[in-house]
Amino acid sequence: MDKQFTRQPVNGTARAGQPYALSCEVPSAPPASVSWLRDGETLPHDDRQPLNGKARAGQPYALSCEVPLAPPASVSWLRDGESLPHDDRYIFLANQLLFTQIRKEDAGVYKCVATNTYLNKNRISDSAWLRVEDPVDEEPALLQLRDEVNITAPRYSRVRLLCPVTGWPRPKITWEIPDSSGRRAILDYTEEILDLTSLELDLEGVYKCSVDEYTHIHKIFNVTVTEAVTITLPPVSKEVIRASTVRFNCTAVGRPTPTVTWYKDGQPLVLGGRFNMRSANFGSRYELVVGGVTSADAGIYQCFASSADSIASGWAALGVGGASAAAPTGVRCWPLGAHAVLVRWEEPMGDVMAYTVQTTLPAWPGQPHSNTEETITVSEPLTPYGFQVRAFIKGPGKNVASDMSEPPIFCQGQGVPIQIRKKGDDAVLISWQEFAKETPDVAQWVLQYRPENSTEERNITLSGDVRNYTLPVPPDQNLQVRLLGSKTLEWLPQNLTLLPWTSTASRDDAGDVSAVPQDVHVTGVWAREFAVRWRCERCEGHAFTVCVRKPDGTNKCLDSYNNSATVDGLEPETEYEVEVQARLPGRAVGGPFSLPQTVTTLSDGPQLVKDLTWRFVNATTVRVSWNAPPAKYTVSYSSELKMPVEMWSSLDTVGNTALITDIDPTRDTFVMVTSFDPHVYSPIKTIPAQISEAKDLQSTFTRSGVMVSWKGGGPRVVRYSQNLTHSLDLWPSMNASGSSIEITNLDPTLPTYVMVAAPGQSQRSQVLTIPVRPDEPSSLYLGIQTILQYIELFRQVVCGQFIPRTS
């Protein structure tokens, strides 16, 4: 029968960018399929609208509808102009309506309605008819859905994994799910929708649905559990005086691990220098550390902990009070050598008791002294450091700390160590091979030279890969030379007037000594001297020259006729470089110098904090005491001696004793006490480890499990798991007081992973892998005592001595 149009398109005028509708109606049962032509060409269908279609009864089917709205809209469905009734067979996805098992009564005309509750607007899609026909035989196939297979959901939420499969007869579905051992288990469940009603941590993992006998038809889901961020230790407002150190807690938990950022007065806080993030209590607490507080540090500090779609925040106010004093002015700096910078400043008003110089990279407040200059030893040559000076002024009751000098001044260690050797009668070879090896990222060198008794300098620019240079020198003249380096092509402007020169008159004649001292190491250090030892192969009959480079770049050398020497006449608390050269006795000519070693002399000043002692309270708690007047002290402690003291954990106390908790009993603990009036540091005290680390872990199978043993006494925490991918926090644990323990209730078909650590520490231990239990006869597990009992019973029966027990 021919179709008759009851409404046809009419001519019209539309405005660009505005919606416009053309109408076309054809009454038909079932509804007719309508297509449109423009200029004789078929218009493409908008696949965001529902499409006409037909489905087979008893199988899944999906209608799609995507209405672009911002913000995103919620989508509902109409059938024959009415809202869909409640039915568990309907699953409403973001842009689809899924029928898990379609029926004949589901046939009709469908529209989707997009509702934007923020804008109070609705948009209705085009109509699409759906016919439902009887099933026919067909091969299985996955129904394509616009759902997520990488699912991230909060803990305790509901997650549905959709695996609709078409086909007749209806195919059977098999689900593989993660189990507690980390492997995948086959689930006795054949539904096409797996409903995780309350998501837990042990439900996290990879899920797979597949069609029986059609292994190539499958769908994989990756489920990740998240937990909202919670700040467990928020920052607390504080009121401090200048020059003190402030710590703000902001410890947060969540899944994934949250990231913490800090703001001050609403602006992002740039970390570095005096502002640093530190971990304490073996990573269980995170702090913002503000060192050497100034008046400008006062304000509101906010921490934001964010993870996935969750965020939490905390805030605290910092007040800086107390009496004020003028900060030093006129701060200037000069390089003295590769590792030394001189800082000078003008004396402020008032009765100055001491100064300290704050250095960046790393932030370090320096030692108090009364001079208006200080030679600073920097660890990285050719690296800019910032310097600020603070003054401590004598007040009526106590010393008053000033703010830092502003702005910071920047200098870098400059003046590369060089070796000068004669090369013919009219040239010298200048070499800096060793320094270049230790500083590999130099971009450019500048070799400066001038005639002796002259100030007219000449520069030779060399690329960063050059290691030596031949400089012409007239036979009847000596030159002064020095080498500069820069890690960037843009050089830091500096005043080089104090940087020393080296004369070519000190050049060595080419010699035949090729032996190089090895393994140079310092065997003892004191305030004004240190001892050094080395070894040298093929050095029989040789003498040695030991040279010490001072912070100002000059050398102090002495001779030795064995493989050790003591260098004296040094300055306390000063960093030196020592190197050793082999030479023939009676000749100035020597071979190459050894690699330089760095040594820092100790302090020889009076100690305010004396007789620092310690006593363990338990395995992880120690009480330290010292001989000093009762006052406020800071006790700093760490198991990493090379870590800057500013990064050590610390606690404040009033008195001369303190209790340190949560130390690692298997490692040495280093302790230093700081007084505030005056600002003095004690020598570092070493508290030796109380429990040795468990070593030589071994295992043997027992009848009920496995016996783990180790060398080293003391209490232990034994953690074990049969899934190495699980977090250590989820591993079961047992306490052991001896040197062995039996672990039971294990799956014999899986390997077992064991860690043995001391209590209270950060679980530092190697993992012992115990393989799968081998197949062995059960008789091998009979105890020796049981076997002996059977032998005795057999003997009594044979000898007629067995008397049956009567009731």
Automatic annotation (TrEMBL):
Residue intervals of the Ig-like domain: 3-40, 44-125, 140-226, 227-313
Coiled-coil region: none
InterPro entries recorded: FN3_dom, FN3_sf, Ig-like_dom, Ig-like_dom_sf, Ig-like_fold, Ig_I-set, Ig_sub, Ig_sub2
GO CC terms: membrane
UniProt-listed GO biological process terms: anatomical structure morphogenesis; cell adhesion; cell differentiation
SUPFAM superfamilies documented for this protein: Fibronectin type III, Immunoglobulin
Record's protein name: Uncharacterized protein
Lineage top rank: taxon: Eukaryota
This protein's UniProt keywords: Disulfide bond, Repeat
Start and end residues of each Fibronectin type-III domain: 516-604
Source organism per UniProt: Loxostege sticticalis
